[in-house]
């Protein structure tokens, strides 16, 4: 009797232990599922927060693009107005220069017999995020320096824009002159001051040639890097009319051609510098607008991907919850 009672006690204890293990295992599995569900919900919340941040960034970029478009249009209109004037001024100076072949040339028209000192004026931007506007130009400047600097006694660099200075400094090439923040409010008066300074430096013999390196504006997506010799002046000379071609009229100038050249050449140099700066400014705005548009498109694509990923995670969490409910209902039957 005692043995049977003992066996019953042991059997009952064994069943209790087994049941405890089963219930303990179920509780552990439930905790693991709850932990996984919490992690998935946290992932969904993170994706939603990241998605919202990207939407804010996209709205900000759209606002910047609108501003860049307005500034690009203003710069383009100013450039389109300046180009014909500069071209006609060049033609006029060229025609006057042909009449002055028997008189001493103006200092701005006198090229040095031996070019030993060259000044490069490089126009870059103060800020980045404008595509290849700076990189393309500066790589060509660097190649020019490697190919031509040894041919001269001295090559001085006047760098306009912080990005150009940083590019050369990273290559252990310091610039002799550096300017920043001059694009905002740049006008004809600023171009005239720069032209008079170039004229003074050339007449004093500081250098023999001055070359401007800048981006010539063609469209918002296309800019050409140009190396243009600005001093001494080499205006477009009036071409001789071909037989049967368009008639090219002659002009009678008053006062005399030397006096006109003395007055027009500084104006011509000012106009040319003003056009160069307008070209660079319009090119920068165009390149920045294209870069911002590409960034905006990338934000839109990222938002779509994160939205899809968030929807998938949320659907997976819902599916897991439903499976837990179904499994629990089956276990209670």
Topology:
Elements: H1 2-99, E1 117-123, H2 133-148, E2 154-160, H3 162-169, E3 177-179, H4 188-203, E4 209-217, E5 223-231, H5 257-332
Parallel strand pairs: 1-2, 1-4, 2-3
Antiparallel strand pairs: 4-5
Helix pairs in contact: 1-5, 4-5
CATH superfamily of the domain at 63-236 and 254-294: ATP synthase, F1 complex, gamma subunit
Total number of helical segments?
A: 5
The percentage helix is: 55-70%
In what range is the share of β-strand residues? 5-15%
- End-to-end distance, in Å? 38 Å
Q: Provide the CATH topology of the domain at 63-236 and 254-294.
A: Pyruvate Kinase, Chain: A, domain 1
> What general outline do the C-alpha atoms trace?
elongated
* Name of the level-1 CATH class of the domain at 63-236 and 254-294: Alpha Beta
Q: Pick out the low-confidence regions.
A: 1-7, 9-25, 238-243
Radius of gyration: 37 Å
CATH architecture of the domain at 63-236 and 254-294: 3-Layer(aba) Sandwich
Number of strands: 5
**Mean pLDDT across every amino acid position:** 75
- Biggest sheet strand order reads 3-2-1-4-5
Biggest sheet descriptor? 5 strands, mixed
Listing every helix as H and every strand as E from the N terminus to the C terminus, the arrangement reads HEHEHEHEEH
Structural class: alpha/beta
């Amino acid at each position: 009797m005692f043995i049977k009672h003992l066996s019953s006690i042991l059997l009952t204890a064994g069943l209790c232990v087994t049941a405890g293990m089963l219930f303990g295992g179920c509780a552990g599995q439930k905790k693991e599922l709850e932990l996984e569900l919490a992690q998935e919900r946290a992932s969904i919340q993170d994706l939603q927060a990241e998605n919202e941040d990207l939407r804010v960034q996209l709205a900000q970029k759209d606002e910047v693009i609108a501003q860049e478009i307005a500034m690009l249009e203003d710069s383009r209109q100013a450039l389109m107005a300046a180009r014909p004037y500069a071209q006609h001024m060049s033609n006029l100076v060229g025609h006057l220069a042909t009449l002055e072949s028997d008189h001493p040339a103006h200092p701005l028209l006198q090229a040095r017999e031996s070019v030993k000192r060259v000044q490069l004026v490089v126009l870059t931007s103060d800020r980045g995020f404008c595509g290849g506007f700076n990189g393309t130009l500066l790589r060509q400047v660097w190649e020019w320096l490697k190919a031509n600097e040894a041919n001269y006694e001295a090559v001085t660099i006047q760098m306009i824009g912080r990005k150009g200075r940083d590019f050369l400094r990273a290559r252990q090439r310091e610039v002799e002159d550096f300017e920043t923040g001059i694009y905002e409010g740049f006008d004809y008066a600023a171009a005239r001051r720069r032209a008079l300074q170039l004229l003074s430096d050339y007449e004093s013999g500081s250098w023999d040639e001055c070359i401007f390196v800048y981006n010539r504006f063609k469209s918002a997506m296309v800019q050409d890097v140009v190396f243009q010799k600005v001093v001494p002046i080499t205006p477009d000379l009036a071409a001789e009319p071909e037989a049967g071609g368009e008639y090219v009229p002659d002009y009678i100038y008053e006062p005399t051609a030397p006096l006109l050249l003395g007055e027009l050449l500084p104006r011509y140099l000012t106009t040319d510098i003003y056009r160069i700066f307008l070209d660079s400014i319009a090119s920068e705005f165009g390149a920045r607008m294209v870069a911002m548009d590409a960034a905006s498109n990338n934000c839109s694509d990222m938002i779509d991907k994160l939205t899809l990923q968030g929807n998938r995670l949320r659907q997976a969490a819902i599916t897991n919850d439903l499976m837990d409910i179904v499994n629990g209902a089956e276990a209670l039957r």
